[in-house]
Amino acid sequence: MWPQHPDHQRAAARLLLGAWLLLCAGTGVAQSGFTGGVTPSRFELASEPGSVIRRSLKLFNMSDRPQNYRIKTVDWQYSEAGEISFQDALAPGSCRPWVRLEQHEVSVLPDPRRPRPYRFEVHVPEDAPPRECRLALMIESLDSAYTTQFANGAIELPIAGRIAVVVYLAIGDVAPELEIGDLVLHAAPRHGVLPAVPVRNVGGAHGRLDADLSANQASGESVELSIATSPVLPGQTRHLRLTPPPGTDLSYPLTITGRIYSEGKSIVVNQLIEQDIDADDPELIASQ
Amino acid sequence: MISKDTSIRNRRLRKQALSITAAAAIASTQAFADADIAVQPAGTGLAATANVDLRVVVPEILIFGVGAVGDAIAELQWTLDNAAAVAAGNNQTYSGASAPFTAPAPLANTATAAVVANGGTGATALGNQAELPVFLFSNAGTDVTITTTVGGGATGAGTVDALDNSTVAGATIPIASFTGGDGGGILQPALSSTASAATANVGGIVNLTDTWTYSYSPASIPPAGTYQARVTYVAATP
User: Fold this and answer.
1) Measured between CA atoms, how close is B153 to chain A, in angstroms?
2) Terminal CA-to-CA distance of chain A, rounded, Å?
3) C-alpha angle with apex B131: B204 to B65, nearest 5 degrees?
4) Whole-angstrom Cα distance, residue A130 to residue A82?
């Protein structure tokens, strides 16, 4: 029986996490020079003006030797096509000056059972207006900063890895307001043509969709569809693709039925998708 | 000998321990989250139901690995072999009937890849292609987006999307001379700054290994020297 007490639940969750990470290391899937891990991988925080938000994360070193990690804040943007970009320079309206980091450099042992707890705070000013601000904690190995030792006359291309923990900070009474359109066909690079849900966010905070949908295919077979749960930022219109199980090719026409859930509401879906369209069709919306 | 202060402190601790134990005992007698008493007419089978709700809290984890295990940083390098480009006419004997040297043949810019192992193994090179192992895990329920940054110089602070010559200012090799690839698992974003690719989750999970490749196909011979750039990949679950 799973323990009822919150402390016991947390301890059991830690055990699960530790066991999984050990399994990872033991089976050799972590075959990398930079192999860093973090939990949680993002924060979605709510705050009020004048408040202080304190949170911690855990850093994992999955390599075979101690690593020094550097942590810094960065701003990030997310396009309607689903592309993310990071920048060191302060973006207009950035709330990074409100962030206090425990340390800028920490040492992490190569033991998945001994993650390095790491704390940070966000000091929201008294006069901060209601809005959602976004930042990220960029985690990199200091080994990445070491000067590479190549032979003279060579063409050199070192490859480094980093992890960004994205932070959404809602200040005051802000919330997403998602407008959901009829399903469309949608071309996604490397994902082909798939049905997608057009979503427009006219609210003040990011939102996500959840769904319980199935597709009745021309072949008579019915398959479950998973909706992309990537965020829709305020002011954005995105197309969230509906993906069948791996290895399943959809046969058109499709009838998609079920429900889409958004911020405590649900929308009934019952729509016929007439035909497949080639992925190169310029009329298709290309995004991730 | 136990001092008076120590004795008092121990008694206090024992008292606190007793209080905690008593509280736990009281709690245990009140810990029936769900109870049911069945009352049925005589001759009817009795049935009582009690529910136990299960809840598992699984934290979100993101793990990203690039390069060979134990490597400080994955170092790829190429050398240009243009020995075949030495003009065949260089050793001709001058007979007076023609020019002593014929025009050199077009240079054969054969790039050979290598991987500098500074502690780890696993990265390989074949011909002009270097290969790196990559690993990605996330249970965040969303796709994992990987973003590329390419900067010239030893630390990547130089020319964007180019390899800088370490001695000749302004001499660069465009990153477009390189071609990246993946095995279809972890999507490798294009080799240019701000390029981004999302690896789809399956049932909320991304748990993949892959091999990313890098090939250099020079269109022309650059000025001699050492050229450097750094490619940085950032994994995130927005």
Assistant:
1) 9
2) 41
3) 40
4) 25
CB contact under 8 A, A154 and B147: no
Chain B interface disruption, residue of A7, A44, A156, most B CBs within 10 A: A156
> Are A41 and B173 in contact (CB < 8 Å)?
no
Q: Give the pLDDT score at B134.
A: 92
Flag if B233 and A62 touch (Cβ within 8 Å). Answer: no
At B5 the three-state DSSP class reads helix
Residues of B within 8 A of A4 (CB-CB) are: 33
Distance CA B232, CA B196 (A): 12
Among A241, A229, A235, CA closest to A184: A241
Phi then psi for residue A283, to 5 deg, are -75, -15
Give the sign of the dihedral formed by CA B9, CA B11, CA B14, CA B20: negative
pLDDT surpasses 80 at B40: no
Tell me how far apart the alpha carbons of residues A151 and B156 are, in angstroms, rounded to a whole number: 18
DSSP code of residue B18:
H
Collect all residues with Cβ–Cβ distance below 8 Å to A263 and sequence separation of at least 6.
A175, A176, A177, A178, A207
Whether the ipTM is more than 0.90: the answer is no
Collapsed DSSP state (helix, strand, coil) of residue B234: strand
B48-89 tens-digit pLDDT: 888 888 888 888 999 999 887 666 677 888 887 654 444 444
A145:B228 CB<8 A: no
Say whether A63 and B64 touch across the interface (CB within 8 A).
no
Name B28's Cβ contacts closer than 8 Å, sequence gap at least 6.
none
**Which one of A4, A158, A163 has the shortest CB-CB distance to B62?**
A163
Residue of A nearest to B152 (CA): A157
Tokens standing for A207? 């939102």
Q: φ and ψ at B139, to 5 degrees?
A: -120, 25
Reported pTM:
0.79
